[in-house]
Amino acid sequence: MLTPAFRRLWAAGAVSTIGDAMNGTTVVLWLYSQSTAPAPWLSALVLAGFLPRVLVVPLYGRLADRFGPRGLMIGADLLCAVLALLLAGALVLGSPVLAVLCVAALAAGATLAEPAQRALTPATVGPEQLTRANSLLTLTTQLGFTLGPAAAAIATSWLGPVPAILFDAATFLTSALVLAGLRLIRPAEAEAEEPVHGTIRSGLAAIRGSRVLLVATAAALALSLSAGVNNTIMVVFLDRDLGGSPADIAWLSGVNGIAQIVAGGVVVALAARLPVARGLAVSMAVMAAASVLMVSATDVPTAIGAVLVTSLANAPFSIAYTTLCQTAVPERLVGRVFAITGGIGSLLFMLGSLAGGALADSAAREAILLSASALVLAAVLAAPLWRVRQVSRTG
């Protein structure tokens, strides 16, 4: 049985995730309705969602030092509530520029809250419950981002975009209120006092200090690059190279979301039996095998099957990597590790998306090969982790 402290942390995250998922889809639908040429604005929206995740990483350490992970999460929620209200105002004014700026600021707030949540999780459960707790958080996030866009489409069609954004603001306020009553099962270890640039330096040092974490991080970053390539190339690959249709794209998206939910549920049920390092190695090997299947696909069903296998392995990998970061480095540095790896991962995702976009018109299958190569490299890096039975904390 998970603790009341974790259930409160989980509830706060679940509420804000639903709002975040509705927010993105609502703004996309609004941009389509407001502009005769929405493509540039949609590109700006994608950039606004990812670039702040890279730029605000150095701020995490200083803010965590001052407010602690819990205080940082509450502050980020309150800030995001205000920003969501400003976003609603931008929609009322019909200003795409202001809307994109608000989305960028919201992404920055989320970037500060996510590593704080992961740093706080070990203080809400016992060590034997950590994998299960991470599984529930990952599963809830996936559920939110699978169901949230559909809820946003329904809310926007019935009520309009502004009420949907106001609901997002309400979710941030609710999350802050829930977190205000959080009582940890033990005090969270204080973050180390450092200058602003110290977040990057100390985070990288913590990763280098654990050989297991260093290998796993390299695999995770290769996975981010691969995901970025697939993000822009998959539609072209299915449509032009495999003769697919728009309905196949919908199937692809649905299969991806459902598979990750199912896989996350399995990890929740079997968490106590899954060695973290071995889970990383197996998940990465499965994703690499699926990427090879994707490269060799000659029809849409085979490609969708490859996506299904990849998605089934992705959730266990994410859960195992999160647990590894929480157990392999000193607790005071956990948030910094997540901040730096999240920032680098977002940068690689953007670079992969740009590479995929550049190759889309002339070499879609070659871009899929690039993605598969990144996954195979990650699998090779992660393979030695199969021999690791238990991860010890460094420092």
From TrEMBL:
GO terms for cellular component: plasma membrane. This is MFS family permease. It is a multi-pass membrane protein. Residues 212-395 form the Major facilitator superfamily (MFS) profile domain. It is found in: Cell membrane. Keywords: Cell membrane, Membrane, Transmembrane, Transmembrane helix, Transport. Pfam families: MFS_3. It comes from Crossiella cryophila. CDD domains: MFS_MefA_like (cd06173). The keyword DNA repair does not apply. The chain crosses the membrane at residues 9-33, 39-60, 212-237, 249-272, 279-297, 303-321, 333-355, 367-386. It comes from the Bacteria. The keyword Cell membrane applies. InterPro entries: MFS_dom (IPR020846), MFS_trans_sf (IPR036259), TM_effector (IPR010290). GO terms for molecular function: transmembrane transporter activity. Its main location: membrane.
